[in-house]
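Quick sanity check, GTP-binding protein:
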Amino acid sequence: MSITNEIVLRPRFKKELKQDHETILKVFEASKKTCQTYKIVRVDDHVFIRLPKQEQHFWSPQLHLEINEIDSETSMLHGLFGPNPTVWTMFMFLHFLVAGLFIAFGIWTYTNWTLKNPYGIQLGMVIVMIIAWFVLYFAGRFGRTKGKSEMHELYNFMDTTLKTNGII
């Protein structure tokens, strides 16, 4: 699996598997009982693989697998790496907050400019919002880099589980 240096904070992959989706889901359901290294949760056609709570840090990734049925003998596995959903929600909230403030300060700056009133403070806040967005972006990149080895471990666990059970 290659995690390229693209502008992607949540890497994705997909694989076509020569097995029906219920069999694949049962493999992960069975590995949930035997695996002590990872916490595995299955909800319908979704499987979530993550580190146990005591080994997680703020940027620890989880692997979300969605197994869709193509036909009775073939399935498509969609994988998505991402941080803990709580961390991701906070991260997206901060992005929307910065974007909203950028728009508000931009409107306020433009209004003062057209009315020929002083607008230095408002323009300064627009620039601060741009800087805040870059800080959030680089924080996300840092988090992805910090969790990259764990991403590889999660992927290798998934791959090994599928190979051990003759699915790949």
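Posting the structure with no commentary besides this: The first helix runs from residue 21 to 34.
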